[in-house]
Amino acid sequence: MSYNPYATDTGNPYAADDGNPYAVEPTNPYGAPADTNNNQYASNNPYANDESYEMNNVSQPGGANGDDFFTKIQVLKDDLNDYNGLINQLERLQVSALNAVSAEELDAIKAQIDSATSNLRSTQSLEIKPKLEDLFTSCGGDKDKEQQTENIRNQFRNAIQRFAKVDDGYRQSNQNKAIEQYQIVNPDATYNEARQFVDQIGDQQVFDEAIAMANRKGEAIAVLDEVKARHQEVLRAVQLTAELNELLNDLQELVFQQEEVIDSANQHIDLAQGQLERGDANVIKARDHAKKGRKWRWILFWVCVVLICAIVGAVVGGVVGSRNN
């Protein structure tokens, strides 16, 4: 069988479980969408209230550069608020999609899900990411700025991970519901047979065979159409998960690239220090050579003086001696 990205069954995160982050009501896993105020992501969302993640009080450097940096911080905070609001909207739409009772209703909700997902992709890739990259180049070695930039990066990473978790839960729930619906059409099918069918639903021949095997053709077609629609949602979620993982890797690379710049600067500093030390050694050596040169010049000077004195003495002595004779 071809590659199956859903081999691991982690259960339905929308099922009625006390520990289920996607549960709507304990007694009805596919009930009406939960109120935003009761949504665990809305209540625990670190971006829902500006005050919950305000920047720590720091001494802001004066001048236009400092004001520009903190303006960029505020813009990114606003973008993160929008990003998390879109995740909340997407989560509500996904719960509604799981409650859909027909392929037509599901298709209508899917259009809204696609729109919300497109807005999320645009916000994360065209708004937040490039602005964050620019922020990393605006710190100028200021520790307070670097800390706030790191905080924004961590908030963005946490939001991406939350987005991935929400969408992965939706994928698992769609897969489980599609399996249940197939077993309604073919009650004799085992869970593994139903899951294999859902994984291969894109194959029209498999789809036609399932309809032929069903007792009530009209009902089977309607149910299998919905199964097919849910399978498309599963595939979309898998693709989105890959994109989010790539974005997380890009964020990690962003930090790594900054560290490379610092390491390169340190290497240049070490190289310059080594050159200075070698230069100092050369200066000392040249000074020693100069001292020795001056010493030998003085020695040579005095030797010449002595020799000249000796010669003069000898000449004078010879002249005096010749006169005496």
Structural class: mainly alpha
- Measured by DSSP, the beta-strand proportion falls in under 5%
Per CATH, the architecture of the largest domain is Up-down Bundle
**CATH domain class name of the largest domain:** Mainly Alpha
Low-confidence stretches: 1-63
Helix content: over 70%
Number of helices: 7
Q: Name the helix and strand elements from N-terminus to C-terminus, one letter apiece.
A: HHHHHHH
Mean pLDDT, rounded to whole units?
73
Distance between the amino and carboxyl termini: 135 Å
Oligomeric state of the chains present here:
single chain
Which value, in Å, is the CA radius of gyration?
40 Å
Could you walk me through the main structural features you see in this protein, from its secondary elements to its overall organization?
The chain is mainly α. It has two domains: 36-261, Methane Monooxygenase Hydroxylase, Chain G, domain 1; 293-325. Helix 4 runs antiparallel to helix 7 (217-324). The protein is 75% helix and 0% strand. It is built from seven helices and no strands. The N and C termini lie far apart (135 Å). It is rod-shaped and about 160 Å long.
Topology of this structure?
Layout: H1 40-43, H2 64-99, H3 103-136, H4 143-185, H5 191-199, H6 204-213, H7 217-324
Helix pairs in contact: 2-3, 2-4, 3-4, 3-7, 4-5, 4-7, 6-7
Notable traits:
Methane Monooxygenase Hydroxylase, Chain G, domain 1; SNAP receptor activity; disordered N terminus; 325 residues; T_SNARE_dom; 7 helices; t-SNARE coiled-coil homology domain-containing protein; 2 domains
